[in-house]
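so the lab meeting is tmrw and i was supposed to have these ready like two days ago... anyway. pasting both below. for each one the top line is the aa sequence and the line under it is the structure tokens. i havent really looked at them closely yet so no promises
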Amino acid sequence: MEETCLQQSFFAQHAWLLEVPGQQPIPASAIQALEGIANAISAEIEAKADETTEPESTSDDAPAAKPLFEGHRIPPISLKDYVIRIWNYTKVSPICMLVAYTYVESLNARGRCHVTHLTSHRLLLTAVLLAAKCYEDTVYNNIYFAKVGGITPAELNMLEMEMLKLLDFRLLVDVDDLHRRLVLLEQGKLALCKEAPEASGMPVCYGV
């Protein structure tokens, strides 16, 4: 009962978190939040610039295995545009984006999957998919999410299972944790822990 009251109070104070694309008017705070999430992750990437460059080809006969979330090259779409694209076409509420950010933050902080230029897009796409399945009443299927994200359904299926394992299948996020991140987000201080109008058609996203 106490947890339910906390949740009601939390969402009463931040009702825009439950808005989805297509519901008018979409608060500017929703777009600002998405940009804040992208900026926080981008800042972490830039702080590790020496670790995030594209790998150079070697003459070794047997190259080292790549982490599952690591793409072949840095995606041509910026992380901010990618975040807004995911939100716009999957119709998830901003709270899902914040929960997805929490998943990525947890994996990065625990060293289970580091955020880099080569992993950030796939990590976010997969995290949003899991957050939507956990928190939304209706969700697009994996085939649609894969099309939005610019990868194949088979890849997304593998990434989904891998992230579930890395998160120990724990997808529910504590309300206090969400509130703490939201306050930082609204203050423009969100950072990864160290320990728009609707388009008429969906443009294709390549090379993520």
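ok protien two:
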Amino acid sequence: MVECSNPNTSYDQRFISTAQVLGVPTSMAAHSFSPLADLVVELTDGSNKHLFLVSSEILRVVSPVWRKALDPESKFAPLEKITVDGTEYRKTTLDEIDSISLTYVFNILHHRAGPTPRSITFKSLRDIAVLADQYDFEDALAPWPQFWIEDLAKDSAKQLEIGYEDWLFIATVFATVPVCEKIILNVSKQLIRDLVISPLSSSEEELNRKHDRWSKAKREGVKVNLQLVPEKILGKVLGYPSVMPLSFPTCPRPMMHYAKNYTIEFIKKEQEELVTNALFPLWIFTKNMTDFSFQGPKLDASVRCVNHECSSLAIGSLLKSINGLKLQNILMTEEFKIPEGYSPEGLIRWIERIRMTTLTLDRDATYEEGYHTIWCTTHHTQDIISSTSSRLPIFGQKIPADFFLGNQHDSVTKHTSGRFATCHVARHLASQQSNATALLQRVKGYSAAIDS
């Protein structure tokens, strides 16, 4: 039989020895929180087992989850029974929280919060947040979470130190606390930096750094779990619903088991998918332009240029730009591969710098000038050849001043109507570059992260 301490005190305990069996708790403590206690909550904390005598009515009032689970007429399997100090109680169990933190919770819920401190450890706050989120009773703890959070958040720089990423989860659970909005912003920025701006690298040092920051590493006694980052926050931070869907588990309560360990593998996967979505279309474009034996996907006929002078100028200037930017090992490889040593943001910024020169031509008509008949069309193979040098003076009398278009992005805005038109190839390259840049902008909070 388990004995219990005086139920009239706010937090009494009495240790009761048990058999010293390996793997079994070596002592048991009973704690009473109500003179009308009718439920025992069992908790194993390290080598000790704790029995918390509580009011099931209070738990059912504050928590919709407990309301169903503790309903005497519940359709769930009946709870086990346990006898404490000669009285029989129904028994339920909790885990993933220490006895001191659970004591704070039950004292507050049972209106015996006098002994509750206004300052607690980060680990204790995190464990309380997990429990409150699981059982949906965070509002019933007010105003204590505000006291705890404001005390721990005095040093805003500490929120970004290794080991404190769970601030993102805590601040989301207790979102009504005013300071939590700023905490979410600060830690989200760091998450964005690691997911988007940090270089892709397989080096042991880099992997260890990110693993320590976002995994179950232990620093200063704090266990860090990327999977504690709420899915709704990850969705907002990453913001790729139409580009790359998240494979994060749709678990309504993080404490309902953490599923898989989405640590460095998760970060690396998101980075690789972002880079692939940005880079692969440009690799296809470059291979089509520079490798006539390329067996991969072909460019659509609508984005090709069959004017020989314009096409030759485009290829030559594209190669010169790629070589100048030292992107040959990225855009001209035999097989597509994700490059190492680049951040997604840095790689996309390099892609933005590629330039290609094309011609502004009358692409849908033929006309005569002097002794030369000029054919400039993207739809026919006819081409009456004369030297470029002999043609240019004649062209100069008819074509616009920006005959040579040195920036493909201008092809999207200039000569969109009228007789002369810019090159379809230039428009396509500009479009692919814009799409790559847009991937960064879809990462919500990205602009704020790089500006801070």
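from a quick look at the 2nd one: The longest strand covers residues 87-94. The chain has three domains: 1-116, 155-262, 265-452. will dig more after coffe
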